[in-house]
Amino acid sequence: MKYNKPHRGFSPVNAIPKDFAAALKQGGLDDFFAGCTDAHRREYLKWIEEAKQPETRKIRIGLTVKMIAAESLQEAPLPNKIKSEADDFARPDLP
């Protein structure tokens, strides 16, 4: 069963604020952000929505876009990196 109510009073994950959506689109990150998990997107949206001053909101949107851009440049998701590192240490005598 999927929980469809907004999380703790914040907007649902589908309701991306227009200013943040424009910044994502300008950075070419809108598709990447849409592919993130709901929990991941919710944390970013919550942090942006908690800003009390418009200037703070602008700063948080800029920082969020930079963080998402850095994530999009990673070679592989973390679980794949861990698995490949574990494979490097596998003993050849074990099946």
Task: Describe the protein's topology.
Elements: H1 18-26, H2 30-34, H3 38-49, H4 54-72, H5 78-88
Rg computed from alpha carbons, rounded to a whole number of angstroms = 18 Å
Helical proportion, percent range? 55-70%
The average pLDDT is 76
Compute the number of helices.
5
Largest sheet: none
| Helix and strand pattern | HHHHH
Q: N-to-C terminal Cα separation, in Å?
A: 40 Å
Give the total of domains: 1
What proportion of the residues form beta strands (DSSP E)?
A: under 5%
State the secondary-structure class: mainly alpha
The counted number of beta strands is 0
Q: List low-confidence stretches.
A: 1-7, 78-83
**Bulk shape:** globular
Summarize the structure.
With 95 residues, the chain is mainly alpha-helical. It has helices at 18-26, 30-34, 38-49, 54-72, 78-88.
Structure explained in plain terms:
There is one protein chain. With 95 residues, this protein is mostly helical. It has one domain (11-88). It contains five helices and no strands. The longest helix is centred in the middle third of the chain and has 19 residues, at 54-72. The radius of gyration is 18 Å and the shape is globular.
Features:
globular; single chain; disordered N terminus; 95 residues; mainly alpha
